Amino acid sequence: MKKTTVLLLAGGLTAVTACKSSQTESTATGMNTETTTTAPVAASETQLNYPKTKKVDHADDYFGTKVADPYRWLETHNEEVDQWVEAQNKVTFNYLDGIEFRDQIKERLTKIWNYPKYGAPFKKGGKYYFYKNDGLQNQSVLYVQNTLESEPKVFLDPNKFSTDGTVALTALSFDKDAKYVAYGTSSGGSDWNTYEIMEVATGKKLDDKVEWVKFSGPSWHKDGFFYSRYDAPTEGNKLANKNEYHKVYYHKIGTPQSQDKLIYEDKTKPLRNFYGQTTDDERFLILNVSEGASGANALYYRDLKDPKSTIKPIIDNFESEYDVVDNVGDKLLVRTNKNATRYRLVLIDPKKPQEQNWKVIVPQNENVMGNVSLVGGRIIASYMKDAASEVVVYDTNGKQLNKVELPAIGTVGGFGGEKDDKETFFTFTSFTYPPTIYRYDVPNNKVTLFRKTEVDVDTEAYETKQVFYTSKDGTKVPMFIVHKKGLELNGNNPTYLYAYGGFNISLTPSFSIANMLWLENGGVYAMPNLRGGGEYGEDWHKAGMTPNKQNVFDDFIAAAEYLIANKYTSSEKLAVGGGSNGGLLVGAFMTQRPELAKVAVPAVGVMDMLRFHKFTIGWAWVPEYGSSDDEAQFKNLYTFSPLHNIKEGVKYPATLVKTADHDDRVVPAHSFKFISELQEKGAPGNPYLIRIDVRAGHGAGKPTSLVIQEWADTWAFLYKNMGVNPYAKKQP
Questions:
Q1: Active-site choice (246, 644, 662, 698)
Q2: Could you point out which of 226, 430, 463, 546 has its C-alpha 20 to 30 Å from the C-alpha of 318?
Q3: Contact 423, 405 (CB under 8 A)
């Protein structure tokens, strides 16, 4: 399949994880690596003067239930809201500025973040391309080299897109002959993209500009490319307006966007998204059609060899997932979970698409099939076994040839390329294994180290274990736990519990420089694989979807209880975190079990479960969550919606809500309304703060400088409210 590098997940929520980077032992800077407890934060320190947030007399009637919405005005974007943001940030940053060791954390993070970070090479037009960040560059730079041994040259530097690093590269696609490259950019973290075209040989940028692209990627055919967009939004509310009527267009090089040809639209289905890609040989245009972000999709195609052909359905329902790997002649190789909850690989004739005509190439097995590529005449399939990677190689008839040798238990990514490539590259990582790039000789099944990441951290000082704990209903749930070797299980270790639990997204072991700072100061990092994710296939996913969403929260609560019962930590030393759908998770956790953790950090979270579908792409999450427009689903949502379950006079964990003013995936109004309710109703004793990034979005493309500052603030907030100074001198 002609793959477009799209750095934004189309159609739904993404897991917001720590940026991947690396670290050093504190002794190198003379810092004490032991965690030293200090006196708990005095209550008087947390009696903050929060901004007075206006309330309006507004209520909605849901099937006879009146639900007040006094902060409805925060859903709009105007000067009054901007003033409220400024006032909230002033209180928050005054608090953070007052944490005596926060600058030390930032200094330490900056030092250990500053190492070269490489992406795996990929080949186009006989040349090799790769991304590299020298260490602290706001955006990674794309380099090109003639051979793997020749001197790399800068091909595209996103740091030159803006002075502050807030314009990011979001998509990249070369035409078949590698004469042109189309690339996408977004500003301030928005999901809105602009596409431009560059001549590969000269680096000359053409006049072409394609705007208002969202949830798409440029996919080439002949002298132009297919892409998807919405109509230009109303000015003034472009970051909140509901996204409807996705359309597929074809842009021809050298013509204005106004002349782009409309390829497909459905005027009867405003909430359908159409994501187009061409096969490697440009024979077929494939449209992935979605009505929500929970995975299931329809599949349409057009035979581009026939100029008179039209777009026709292969699969015209939303019962299962279908991912076209590539074509094999006039048939399509498709990864699907149709009658195979852990996925299988089948060959489908688009002219005879009925299931009885499918040819099974690789049947379902006990592990979950993930990414599949067709490279060097081989099928390379990645699998998950208890959330860790395995890679199996098959011939094109589905006969297993071998497994790819991996260095440890962890996560693998890559194996991209074209059908006739004899080599491919992959990256391997784990919690304490920095991303390492390997070259894979496909015909000879030979793995060689290509590039090792050098970090200033003693990664051998830590250990990772996987445990299986029991959730409320008896379900066994896996959890990774990472900490220093020889950790004393005394119930007093600062612990950060992070999870996601939704949208069929799997959390697998990966290296995070931000987490290494936490670990090197004696902290514990715990990551459970909750229901709602994809770690065990579609059954695991559905067990955490509406009406079963409470299972996800129960799994997270049970993870916290396990860590406390097994003396890793205590409620006074436990912090919970998560982003996006994981922000909802944290919001539900803290409103259902406020006594169980000391600190909560919900980031870019879906907090208003009754109105999420009213904004931008929120409607796409209805299959995952349900909708307040349905009476039974409303009742379910109302039971766990974080905004609507904050109780008067309850002491909630010290809370640092994180969001951004340009987030048009989960609009910041979710966080604005949640913190307003929390500040009004929460009992005193813990701070309830919101940190609002300006000129940033849901997470993708955020400049390194902002990421480092955000993590410095986050860890400082956790330590402060746990009564821990990580850099205090150890008492004799």
A1: 698
A2: 226
A3: no
